[in-house]
Amino acid sequence: MLSDFKRQVVELLKRLETGDRSPLATINPNRYIQHNLRVADGLGGFRERLESLPKGAAKVNTVRAFQDGNFVFTHTKYNIGGPKVGFDIFRFEEGKIWSTGTTCSRPPPSRVRPVTR
To answer: pLDDT, tens digit, for every residue of 15-32?
Structure first.
């Protein structure tokens, strides 16, 4: 079962795909730092980025989520303008997401290795 913080993060990431606005309530509206240079700080910057995605243009699959105190770390497969693998770090303060850092890269090419005995 996911902790409340992990559940909030997974729902927020899924919002990229579904367009659901309710997970935005988990973000601190007065102090939110986004460490992605393409996204402005604050709830408005986050909302603007999400609303810039055409409906159905994003696919999000959070593979795993870990929690350590006030931090949640996720491994997520994204398909937004092409497949990407992401590692996200969310910091919570007073029950709200206070900051987010994300790194994404293209997945490595699949390699089929022959079975040897």
So the answer is: 888 878 777 888 888 888
Q: What is the 3-state secondary structure (H, E, C) of 3-16?
A: CHHHHHHHHHHHHH
How many beta carbons lie within 10 A of that of residue 4, not counting itself? 11
Domains of the chain, first to last:
4-105 (3.10.450.50)
What's CA 109's distance to the chain center, in Å?
Answer: 23
3-state SS assignment for residue 4: helix
Distances 12 to 5, 68, 108, 112 between C-alpha atoms, Å: 11, 18, 26, 35
| Cα–Cα distance, 43 to 101 (Å, whole number) | 15
